[in-house]
Specification:
alpha+beta; Gyrase A, domain 2; 2 domains; 8-stranded mixed sheet; 5-stranded antiparallel sheet; Glyas_Bleomycin-R_OHBP_Dase; Glyoxalase_6; PCD_sf; Putative pterin-4-alpha-carbinolamine dehydratase; EC 4.2.1.96
Amino acid sequence: MEKLTVQDILDADLDGWRRLAQALHARFRTGDFATGLAFVSAVGEAAEAVGHHPDVTLTYGFVDLKLLSHDVGAVTGRDLELARRINEIARKQGIGTATDPLTEVELALDTADIAAVGPFWAALLTGSTDALSGNDVVDPAGRVPLLWFQGTEAHETPRQRFHLDVWVPHDLAERRIAAAVAAGGRVVDDREAPSFVVLADPEGNRACVCTCLER
């Protein structure tokens, strides 16, 4: 399957779905557990019919779905098609979506020696060095956020080495940044917007608000 670009995904105009770090995400407001369970069951039947399956999180008031073609590591046409089928199921069951809560957090660690620190963090976070894949620690069980290593020059001066990458829907990034600034933060660097904007808290600890745009 061909990998889709961000523009391909935006042009598809999928109601309620947003691409975050890699995959398509959607939250469906089911209101109670029984409704959510029935929705998940119907989604499962649709997924089995096309041989492509979403990641599902079922809680009392909502269902979170994530779509990614794992064999190519990207969003493809089959993800868009299944998203459309899921939206039709939701419409028939009277279930709506909400994009405001959609958020994905990744951890980033500055290092000049990935080969040295990568196995340690893979073992610590997942129990196995096999979780180290290139510049990322990926937990196949989904227990911990993705950790990626950002290459940097060796340095001895104390500095912040860890930061959070907070992925939000592209059309809600400005609102999220404004909320953080209103809560006492500040914008440190917005030269790479809308791809990412660097923020800092009142003590100078930094994080990035990231979107899928211009990548």
